[in-house]
């Protein structure tokens, strides 16, 4: 919840669900990355909608209690606490009201390589560049996108 609030406040570029999942699993909770990403998307939607509608903590908790009967009581308590402590920052933010609909660039890595040979070609000897872009999608989940280019394409 806190990382999602930080993401909505533009203090962090996104939520690294793989790293967060590993931390949660280390603490003894059985969860996979896909389920954690779904939870992060739901919480991001919840907090951004609450911010857009300028809901107070009590209004948010009342809405959660009336609409989502399957949400555990302790989960509602955590959401209440985080919204009460940090929700005001995004509720007052104009950026939260017009949430981004495109991904945010986080990092870029590249490396130069030379393909010497392959199964079908004995002598390649052509250099190439491998680029990896790290992007946070609008929900805050960080993903890596990789591709290869020739030197002229890279230039």
UniProtKB/TrEMBL annotation:
PROSITE patterns: COMM. It holds the Pfam family COMM_domain. GO terms for molecular function: NF-kappaB binding. Residues 104-155 form the COMM domain. Scaffold protein in the commander complex that is essential for endosomal recycling of transmembrane cargos; the commander complex is composed of the CCC subcomplex and the retriever subcomplex. May modulate activity of cullin-RING E3 ubiquitin ligase (CRL) complexes. Down-regulates activation of NF-kappa-B. Inhibits TNF-induced NFKB1 activation. Belongs to the COMM domain-containing protein 6 family. This is COMM domain-containing protein 6. It comes from Leptocoma aspasia.
């Amino acid at each position: 919840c806190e990382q999602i609030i930080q993401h909505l406040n533009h203090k962090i570029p996104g939520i690294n669900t793989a790293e967060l999942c590993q931390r949660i699993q280390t603490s003894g909770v059985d969860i996979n990355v896909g389920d954690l990403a779904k939870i992060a998307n739901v919480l991001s939607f919840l907090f951004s909608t609450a911010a857009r509608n300028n809901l107070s903590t009590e209004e948010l908790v009342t809405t959660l209690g009336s609409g989502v009967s399957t949400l555990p009581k302790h989960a509602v308590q955590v959401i209440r606490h985080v919204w009460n402590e940090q929700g005001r920052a995004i509720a007052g933010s104009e950026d939260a009201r017009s949430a981004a609909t495109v991904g945010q660039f986080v990092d870029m890595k590249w490396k130069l390589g030379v393909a010497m040979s392959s199964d079908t070609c004995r002598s390649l000897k052509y250099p190439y560049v491998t680029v990896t872009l790290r992007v946070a999608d609008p929900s805050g989940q960080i993903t890596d996108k990789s591709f290869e280019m020739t030197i002229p394409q890279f230039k």
